[in-house]
């Protein structure tokens, strides 16, 4: 846009006229600069304006009873949402009123009863009040257990469900199948067209409605896998039961997941979406790199024989040859091994460059964001020129999962 501005200055001398013209031009330049800056500020894209102060504040409980990898994965999942800021919190933080600075709380997987004990009664009350006053809470696996209303079990009675067959909690794990209800399809439209989807399950609670509880939940997804591979668990116990539930509690909302989307490549985005439901926030789209439900098209439940093979892989990483390590990584990735995520980190620094690269690819393929600093260190410290370039590719694959503002 061009602007023509005429400034008429009447003076008695040419020197004064020149002086006035300079002053007028300077004033006009300052005015136009201010106007252009204001116009730029108003026209900036929204994704550049999310400061930590304006983002939704999410706390992930990191206390005794929470599995360390489950904490890592919940934190990583929230980082996929450019409008959210995440931090870990402890029992001491809750006692010191950290909940006053948060919008939502996530209780990750681990051991619900141990988390219950670690929190203590006063913090139980603080969490209930936090939700009842209008905030949001998401419970994942043990966190869902903790939120339940299970008679005879240490729980916060936030979601209206009760767990059954507790004596067979160690029933098994693996990539389980689930289907969405109509409510679930509205919340997760990215997979609404799919007849069946798949997410990692690890000995999560088997929920039924607690009819004596006043809290009523809606089922957003149904478990379709029959998990009974371990612990002499009975058949036909898990299938047909709630997979995701959602409910109101006072002025707030609670979302419960018996499984682990945050531990499933291509499905981690479901966790920040659950937080959005808990806070009654509009849903937003996540990138194609993040939303990849097609990565798994079948159930992969770990058998007893598979668990023995998995254990052998650990020994291979300690004592095996480079070729044996490569074969072990291939097997572990094909089974989405739960334990391998704790083993693969050190292989980035293995003495063999092929093993280092395969470990980097394993982390990138499984979208394990927590190891992003290790991937960067492995890439930058790599001495093999050809491998260094390939290591950078794997690092960038993981980095690009994050929104620009969260990198």
Show the helix and strand layout.
Layout: H1 14-43, E1 56-61, H2 68-78, E2 84-89, H3 91-95, E3 104-107, H4 112-119, H5 121-132, E4 136-140, H6 142-147, E5 161-164, E6 173-180, H7 182-187, E7 197-202, E8 206-209, E9 217-223, E10 242-249, E11 252-257, H8 270-278, E12 300-301, H9 304-319, H10 322-334, H11 344-347, H12 353-365, H13 372-381, H14 385-399
Parallel strand pairs: 1-2, 1-3, 3-4, 4-11
Antiparallel strand pairs: 5-8, 6-7, 6-9, 6-12, 9-10, 10-11
Give your account of this protein's structure.
The chain has 407 residues and is an alpha/beta fold. The protein is built from 14 helices and 12 strands. A hairpin with a 2-residue loop joins strand 10 (242-249) and strand 11. The longest helix has 30 residues, at 14-43. The protein starts with 13 loop residues before the first helix and ends in an 8-residue tail after the last helix. The model is unreliable at 1-49 (pLDDT under 50).
Keywords:
407 residues, disordered N terminus
Measured between the Cα atoms of the first and last residue, the distance is 36 Å
Strand content: 15-25%
Rounded to the nearest angstrom, the radius of gyration is 27 Å
Structural class: alpha/beta
Q: What coarse outline follows from CA principal-axis ratios?
A: globular
In short:
With 407 residues, the chain is α/β, with parallel strands linked by helices. The chain contains 14 helices and 12 strands.
């Amino acid at each position: 846009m061009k602007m023509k501005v005429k400034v008429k200055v009447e003076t008695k001398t040419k020197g004064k006229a020149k002086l006035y013209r300079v002053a007028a031009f300077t004033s006009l330049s300052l005015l136009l600069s201010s106007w252009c800056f204001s116009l730029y500020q108003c026209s900036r894209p929204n994704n550049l304006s999310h400061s930590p102060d304006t983002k939704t504040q999410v706390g992930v409980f990191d206390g005794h009873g929470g599995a360390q990898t489950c904490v890592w994965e919940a934190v990583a999942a929230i980082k996929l949402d450019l409008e959210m800021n995440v931090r870990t919190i402890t029992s001491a933080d809750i006692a010191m009123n950290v909940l006053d600075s948060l919008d939502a709380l996530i209780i990750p997987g681990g051991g619900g009863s141990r988390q219950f004990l670690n929190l203590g009664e006063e913090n139980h009350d603080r969490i209930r009040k936090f939700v009842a006053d209008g905030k949001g809470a998401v419970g994942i696996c043990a966190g869902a257990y903790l939120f339940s209303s299970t008679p005879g079990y240490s729980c916060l009675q936030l979601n209206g469900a009760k767990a059954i067959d507790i004596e067979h909690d160690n029933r098994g794990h693996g990539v389980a199948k689930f289907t969405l209800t109509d409510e679930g399809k509205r919340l997760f439209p990215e997979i609404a067209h799919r007849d069946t989807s798949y997410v990692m399950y690890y000995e999560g609670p088997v929920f039924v409605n607690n009819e004596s509880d006043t809290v009523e939940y809606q089922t957003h997804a149904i478990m379709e896998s029959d998990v009974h591979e371990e612990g002499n668990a009975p058949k036909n116990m898990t299938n047909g039961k709630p997979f995701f539930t959602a409910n109101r509690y006072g002025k707030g909302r609670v979302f419960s997941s018996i499984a682990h989307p945050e531990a499933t490549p291509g499905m981690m985005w479901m966790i920040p979406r659950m937080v959005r439901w808990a806070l009654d926030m509009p849903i937003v789209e996540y990138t194609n790199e993040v939303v990849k439900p097609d990565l798994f098209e079948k159930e992969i439940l770990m058998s007893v024989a598979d668990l023995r093979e998995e254990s052998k892989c650990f020994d291979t990483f300690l004592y095996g040859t480079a070729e044996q390590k490569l074969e072990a990584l291939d097997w572990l990735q094909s089974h989405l091994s739960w334990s391998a995520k704790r083993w693969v980190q050190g292989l980035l620094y293995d003495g063999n460059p092929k093993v280092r690269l395969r470990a980097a690819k394993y982390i990138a393929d499984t979208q394990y964001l927590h190891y992003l600093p290790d991937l960067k260190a492995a890439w930058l410290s790599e001495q093999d020129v050809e491998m260094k370039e390939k290591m950078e590719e794997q690092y960038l694959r993981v980095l690009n999962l994050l929104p620009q503002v969260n990198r």
